[in-house]
Amino acid sequence: MTSPQLPAVVEPARLTAALRRGGALDAGAVREVKVLHQRDTVVSHIVRLGLRYVGESAGAPQSLILKTPNAAFAKRLANGGRREVGYYTQLVPQMPPGLVPRCFDGHFDEDSFAWHLLLEDLTDSHEIATAWPVPPSREQTFAIVTTLARWHAAWWDHPSLGETLGTWASVEDSAQRMETFAGHYDRFADLLGDRLSEERRILYRRLID
Predict the structure, then answer these.
(1) How far apart are CA 193 and CA 190, in angstroms?
(2) What is the DSSP letter of 161?
(3) Could you say which of 104, 131, 193, 195 would form a disulfide bridge with 22 (CB–CB 3.0 to 4.6 Å)?
(4) For residues 81-111, b (16+ Cβ closer than 10 Å) or e, as one string?
(5) Among candidates 149, 143, 146, 118, which has minimal Cα distance to 128?
(6) Could you give the CA distance from residue 95 to residue 102 in angstroms, rounded to a whole number?
(7) What CA–CA distance (Å, rounded) separates 169 from 32?
(8) Contact 42, 69 (CB under 8 A)
């Protein structure tokens, strides 16, 4: 794998400014940045950065996650990067702390489709459940769904929805999405066969209807 050139945001002076804006660094400054690990996903290139400081840096992060486009799909999947940057820079600041990683810097360039996110590193406290397409364990699934439920609860009837954040779906949009979901469900039910109980089939059909 060829390492892409790191964006200017990871220069020590830029990192120092970003961490200070985010309240994660007070009097000290970033002295050195080192690439600890990197990998590709479908839409992004993920780099784990190690940081060293000069001066007072108690409580400052020792590492960060940098996300940039996967060079092979940068233009084709540009909208994914645009939406992710928008999510972290517009929605996350309005959410309760601890639900998602903190974002210290993010930008999407409409001319070049280049984008980056500088995120809190949760490597030492979290793990990737499984490698695709292996499903997570029952325990992991409950943890995932619980976190998603907390996320939805934070946005339930939020006054910004449809006003300063996003737009409400039209009746036509909602109908199209439910039609798409119904098609996914039919294929899902056919695949499972008798492993999907009649009780659960009724529940799905009630939702669709």
Answers:
(1) 5
(2) B
(3) 104
(4) beebbeebeebbeeeeeeebbbbbbbebeee
(5) 143
(6) 10
(7) 47
(8) no
Helix residue ranges, H only, the chain: 12-21, 78-86, 138-155, 171-192, 198-208
Placement of tokens 């070049």 in the chain:
112
| Banded pLDDT at 59 (limits 50, 70, 90) | very high
HSE at residue 166, side-chain half, CA atoms within 13 A, is 12
- Provide the 10 A C-beta neighbour count for residue 18: 20
Edge-to-edge strand list for the sheet holding 63-69: 29-40, 44-54, 63-69, 115-120, 103-108
CA dist 132 and 172 (Å) reads 33
Give the residue among 96, 203, 189 at the shortest CA–CA distance from 147.
96
Give the C-alpha separation, 87 to 101, whole Å. 12
Collapsed DSSP state (helix, strand, coil) of residue 131:
coil
Q: What angle, 0 to 180 degrees and rounded to 10, lies between the N-to-C axes of helices 171-192 and 198-208? A: 160
In angstroms, the CA 24 to CA 118 distance is 13
Model confidence pTM above 0.70 = yes
Mean pLDDT, to the nearest integer, of 91-107?
93
Residue 151: CB atoms within 10 Å: 14
2 pLDDT above the threshold of 50: no
Question: Is pLDDT at 11 greater than 80 in this prediction?
Answer: yes
